[in-house]
Amino acid sequence: MKKNSASFYILIVCVFASLFLLCGCQKNSEISIVTVTDTHFAGRSSHSYEGEYLEANDTNGSGKQMRYLDDIVDAFIDQIKEEEPEYVLITGDLSYNGAKASHTEFAEKLRALKETGITVLVVPGNHDIVSYAFTFPEGEAVESDPTTPEDFTEIYADFGYSGALSYDENSLSYVYDTGKGARIFMLDTNLSYGTIYGKLSKETLGWLEEQLKACSEAGDIPIAAGHHNLILHNPLFTLGYLISNNSEVQELFEKYGVTVYFSGHIHTQHISSDENVTDIVNESFAVYPHRYGYLSIGEDGWNYESRTTDVAGYAQKAELSDENLLNYEDYGFNFFYNNAYNQAKGRLTDLITDPDKLEEFSVFSAKANVYYFGGTLSMLDTSAADEFYKSAAGTRWGEYINIVVQDTSDQLSCSYQNETE
Prior knowledge:
By secondary structure, the protein is an alpha/beta fold. The chain has helices spanning about 1-30, 50-60, 70-85, 100-115, 150-155, 200-215, 245-255, 310-315, 325, 330-350, 355-375, 385-390, 395-405, and strands spanning about 30-35, 85-90, 120-125, 135, 140-145, 165, 175, 180-185, 220-225, 260-265, 270-275, 280, 290-300, 300-310, 415.
């Protein structure tokens, strides 16, 4: 009897030891996170792709691809399902302009990721919760049901707003515990809904510090994300782009060891760092080449890389017949380039009377804009830069292109290594 009891106790000890080792391994194992922003989704159920409004978007807009965005989102979801990350973070401006119908349709698309076991976490941007909204059923703007904060949390209940570790009572911010040694802080950075400005209120800052402290005490890694920028990315994009009390947020991040923050809003693929934290902006997903980020977190630190959505590959796989989708690399680039070219030429026409120079500088600045948004300025031929600056001196467009062309650092990847004693 004693021998059997001893064997039983040994078995119990072994089981608990195995569980301890398993938990320890799980907590310190690698975590994979996809980040995407500014999808500006407008689905087929509420939008027609004919009419003056959408024709203007296709020729002289900001580069957002509305006509094929439904298919591009499908391509992204198919690609992410193959990559099998554990998390997908969407940092605001999920919808085109806050129409409830757009949010509902987008949430249904995200359900395909959830059904494969991928956890999707969202947070609102300045286009998501508005007092007025429009759809385009006949290609023209028609007033539609807007989205309230209550609507947003209900529509995206399965994508962060149920099952979180903690919710902020004063915003739509929350903390999600991965259970693997990391906590994800999804921050609602909107100063007030319906404006472009960003700020964390005093109450939200208090909640954030409380949750960061709990994360630190648990020995977990904090990962943060929000719509507005934490660190300056372009000196022309400050008011309305930066979190207005970003220094207070940075102090909290430094105090509790937050080393990476994901944002959006400015639509460009861009990475900025201070001594303690890196602010990574993924390019607007609605804009060619439809980038998203892939973050790998391990015991030694983290690694980030920007990836593009293979729209043409998806079109072939899905046996779609539209030639624009089947040849999307050319179509997508030309769509964005033509929009940028038309805008550039419109700004330069009154400055440059020589038609040849007008054409040359319009092409140069349009390509600069496209490559800047995509984080690939190394592809730009800058031979026309100096003469262009002289011709456009003193204009905001000239200042913008000047800043853009000089911003040649790597915007497609970065990493962080934990300090070792």
